[in-house]
Amino acid sequence: MTQYPKAFIYDLDGVITDTAEFHYLAWKKLAGELGISFDRQFNERLKGISRMESLELILQLSASLLKMSNEEKVRLASKKNEFYLELAKSINEENVLPGIEDLLKNNKKHNIKIALGSASENAKNVVEKLGLISYFDYIVDATKVSKGKPDPETFTSAADYLGIPYKECIGIEDAAAGIEAINKANMFSVGVGSLEHLSQADYLVEDTSKLDFQEIMKKYSEKNS
Length: 225
Ligand code: BG6
Ligand code: MG
Description:
The protein is α/β, with parallel strands linked by helices and 225 residues long. The chain folds into 2 domains: 7-17 and 95-224, HAD superfamily/HAD-like (Rossmann fold); 20-88, Putative phosphatase, domain 2 (DNA polymerase, domain 1, Orthogonal Bundle). Helix content is 44%, strand content 11%. It has a 6-stranded parallel sheet, sandwiched between helices. The termini are close together. The model has no long low-confidence stretch (mean pLDDT 97).
């Protein structure tokens, strides 16, 4: 028999909208100014983690930058955010990735709570620009957690707020750090992306257009039976 979960917790960047690409381009621009280059493979390690943690990983690519002062790091992180905001300023309702609004509608139809679990300080603003804010019962962003992904806190704090047992939650992520966080929270993990990066997901689709509500229910029920 199909079992339904009580909550869906969505990552934002790279799941609901393609801002993962904007983060990548903004980091690349900043890194370029520092004389550092990195590729998409390296960028997978930046997905899902905080702004400052990303900067630290990038600085580690150049021995000469390792001794940078904290003040300078804060300046660079805020510069990256300016690059990101410039790219993100044109976001509107048309930038919701395929399949996402359908999934949100199905959540509502089946009385499943909806939360956001994002590492971004810009999360609420982006969801508003996408015109999706009214779907969300709760938003967890970078300002609400003390430990970011891969720690489970982003996901467990959303479930705790909603009063829902972790086993009855489904988390959706495009980052390896995010899948790890969902799994550590004892929730059902749905990965969006490649097997190479997201092999730990309970269920994997290659892109959001393949996120089918009934199919996810089937996989979730199989795991819990
Ligand atoms: C995550 C992204 O959602 O948020 C990361 O996957 C990003 O790429 C992080 O660095 C922090 O975002 P922001 O908007 O606070 O710089
Ligand atoms: Mg993401």
